[in-house]
Q: What sequence folds into this?
């Protein structure tokens, strides 16, 4: 039996997503831009997915743009805003713990003359809204803050920051990387006060290679790709109908159960913490208010990658730090106050509602075996 506990890296596609993808490969394979019936059937698939995703976010269908994934959504949001609104206002304020697709895009924008101000957690490992507000000024064009951190599940105070920023500087564009919160943490675009929100299909039991960007009506973006008229000309290129339809099908399946899954996964996390608490030389990073979908632990004295591969042999899958960094530390955990010893041995467990008690018991046993078998580094 497999014990997949790496759902922040990616999730297993659900049946509805697979069915929708196959339907669009086998039957509705037309180009949505074609004017005949095959084209219309494909267009209908895209429209339907757009409606479903808009409903889940609490926005209008025309406020959803499809992309190839959240990396592209983040690039488009940041570069598109900078190009549109950053001619005179050159300052961008961002949390210091963003995903590489935000961090690296901003590094590029720095070379274009933008001044990037990163806000860090305080020494208690927490973010405070006022630390963002203190650095936003009339030269700021954009504030970008992720909803839930992908490496430790920390929930950032996005609402408080965006609400206050909008009150004092209504022209500032607000962007939220919502990837690790979408369909996991209840939120609506209006309560978030975000102008732009990035989401990804494969984190919500869809298929890899599709994402979306919520673009509030009236907020303009310069495109980063040039071509046809698709997605209002902001994201040209023939739509990947099978992937878009599978994204829609996954969201349609997941959205109605958001609260039940939240409660279920919260119980799983509590149960795992209780199971692991009695283990020696194991540290649990139980962050206040974090997403119930992520739990970090450190098996002190054992390198995370060694433990990860040890567990993999027992069909237990989890991550050592962020999946995107392939073992190289991104510096995010350190920013939250973890020391070198903790980072070196940090393991990220990330749940889905498909996980069961057996997965937790297998993990505990695997970790105990690791302590008995592996050599201290
Ligand atoms: N942002 C966050 C917070 C993520 O966790 C990820 C995926 N690791 C991304 C962006 C990028 O998403 P995608 O894989 O769809 O490009």
A:
């Amino acid at each position: 039996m497999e014990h997949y506990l790496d759902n922040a890296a990616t999730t297993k596609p659900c049946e509805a997503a697979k069915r929708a993808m196959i339907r669009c490969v086998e039957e509705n394979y037309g180009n949505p831009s074609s004017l005949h019936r095959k084209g219309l059937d494909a267009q209908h698939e895209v429209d339907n997915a757009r409606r479903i995703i808009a409903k889940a976010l609490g926005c209008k269908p025309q406020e959803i743009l499809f992309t190839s994934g959240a990396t592209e959504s983040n690039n488009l949001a940041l570069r598109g805003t900078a190009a549109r609104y950053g001619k005179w206002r050159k300052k961008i304020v961002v949390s210091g713990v963003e995903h590489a697709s935000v961090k690296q895009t901003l590094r590029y924008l720095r070379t274009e003359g933008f001044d990037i101000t990163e806000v860090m957690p305080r020494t208690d490992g927490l973010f405070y809204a006022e630390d963002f507000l203190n650095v936003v000024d009339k030269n700021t064009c954009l504030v970008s803050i992720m909803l839930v951190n992908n490496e430790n599940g920390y929930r950032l105070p996005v609402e408080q920051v965006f609400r206050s920023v909008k009150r004092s500087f209504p022209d500032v564009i607000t962007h939220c990387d919502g990837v690790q919160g979408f369909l996991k943490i209840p939120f609506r675009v209006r309560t978030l006060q975000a102008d732009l929100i990035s989401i990804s299909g494969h984190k919500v039991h869809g298929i890899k290679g599709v994402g979306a960007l919520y673009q509030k009506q009236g907020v303009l973006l310069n495109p980063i790709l040039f071509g046809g008229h698709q997605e209002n000309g902001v994201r040209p290129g023939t739509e990947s109908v099978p992937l878009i339809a599978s994204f829609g099908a996954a969201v349609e399946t997941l959205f109605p159960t958001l609260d039940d899954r939240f409660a279920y996964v919260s119980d799983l996390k509590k149960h795992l913490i209780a199971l692991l608490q009695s283990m020696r030389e194991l540290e649990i990073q139980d962050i206040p208010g974090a997403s119930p979908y992520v739990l970090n632990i450190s098996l002190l004295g054992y390198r995370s990658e060694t433990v990860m591969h040890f567990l993999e042999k027992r069909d237990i899958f989890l991550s050592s730090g962020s999946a995107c960094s392939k073992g190289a530390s991104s510096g995010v955990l350190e920013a939250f106050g973890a020391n070198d010893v903790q980072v070196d041995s940090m393991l990220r467990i990330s749940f889905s509602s498909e996980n069961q008690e057996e997965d937790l018991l297998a993990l505990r046993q695997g970790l105990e075996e690791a302590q008995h078998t592996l050599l201290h580094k």
User: Anything to note?
Assistant: The pocket of 4'-deoxy-4'-aminopyridoxal-5'-phosphate is lined by residues 69-71, 74, 99, 101, 146, 150, 177, 179-180, 200, 211, 323-324 (CB under 6 Å). DSSP finds 13 helices and twelve strands in the chain.
